[in-house]
Amino acid sequence: MRIILLGPPGSGKGTQAQLMVQRYGIVQLSTGEMLRAAVAAGTPVGLKAKEVMASGGLVPDDVVVGIISDRIDQPDARNGFILDGFPRTVPQAEALDALLKQKHLKLDAVIELRVNESALLSRVETRVAQMRERGEEVRADDTPEVLTKRLASYRNQTEPLIHYYSERRKLSTIDGMMAIDEVTGAIHRQLVALGATESKARAKSTSNSTSKSASKSAARAAPAKKGAAKAKMAKKSAKTAKKPAKSAKKAAKKAVKGTKKAAKKTVKKAAKKAARKSAKKSVKKGAKKAAKKVTKKRAKR
Ligand code: AMP
């Protein structure tokens, strides 16, 4: 599964990304974290990024695109990843599209966490207070002044991505003002509706089956059943997911269509078999009758 988490600073992207890492067994690729590590290590990238980051500006596109491209190639990202804090500009999104195409990878979804801006400031203040309480070092860009600048850069440079991905039918918007577990649940339902992951019940039944190949062949042998389950799942998700309910409905329709098709096929097959059987029977009957006639004639003679 490959997804992008989009949202202003303080919207909970990092928290949700970490929860998704545990739930789906994929890695979180946070450009902010990578850049902070580079700054701490004093690498050339870190030296380039340090000042910009401290002032709340954006690090040049080519720097972050290079970091992400290398990171996607690491073996632990093979299973999937969540991009957190990247892309942040339209040129970065275009570069990502080109990168994924070149690597033959597909993006499953872009999840936007929509939040109320005035609530963000108090969220950041709470986060800073909690970090201080735990004796942790507070980020240089976690002050209200720098946050105001980061919010402005989000509005000007990152928000256009909402239009970019919505045009490409990749965007799903989730209310980021809900409680953490509610946001997690809404994201999961959305991913199920999009077919990026399985629902809990389905995932359980798949893991319970003896082997992957056995469950695969069983699924192949019962297309109608699979279609019906898919339709049920897609319909349920369409009901609960906030957006895009349309695509979920479409998926449900498609699945229902698939079920009907499979059923038709089965009926046709059965009819053909029956026709073949009755033809065979009548041939046999005819042969028997002819044989009887011959014996009668011989007896007469
Ligand atoms: P974050 O932890 O995502 O809030 O990022 C912290 C800082 O790192 C940002 O304020 C930027 O200065 C820099 N940064 C992180 N990701 C990017 C990116 N994709 N493009 C440019 N700068 C970034």
TrEMBL record:
PROSITE patterns: ADENYLATE_KINASE. Gene3D superfamilies: P-loop containing nucleotide triphosphate hydrolases. Residues 198-301 are annotated as: Disordered. AMP binds at residues 31, 36, 57-59, 85-88, 92, 139, 150. CDD domains: ADK. ATP binds at residues 10-15, 134, 178. It holds the Pfam family ADK. Its main location: cytoplasm. Residues 227-301 have a biased composition (Basic residues). Pathway: Purine metabolism; AMP biosynthesis via salvage pathway; AMP from ADP: step 1/1. It catalyses: AMP + ATP = 2 ADP. It is found in: Cytoplasm. One of its GO terms (cellular component) is cytoplasm. InterPro entries: Adenyl_kin_sub (IPR006259), Adenylat/UMP-CMP_kin (IPR000850), Adenylat_kinase_CS (IPR033690), P-loop_NTPase (IPR027417). Its EC number is 2.7.4.3. GO terms for biological process: AMP salvage. Residues 204-226 have a biased composition (Low complexity). Keywords: ATP-binding, Cytoplasm, Kinase, Nucleotide biosynthesis, Nucleotide-binding, Transferase. Residues 30-59 are annotated as: NMP. Belongs to the adenylate kinase family. Catalyzes the reversible transfer of the terminal phosphate group between ATP and AMP. Plays an important role in cellular energy homeostasis and in adenine nucleotide metabolism. Monomer. Consists of three domains, a large central CORE domain and two small peripheral domains, NMPbind and LID, which undergo movements during catalysis. The LID domain closes over the site of phosphoryl transfer upon ATP binding. Assembling and dissambling the active center during each catalytic cycle provides an effective means to prevent ATP hydrolysis. This is Adenylate kinase. It comes from Bradyrhizobium betae. The gene is adk.
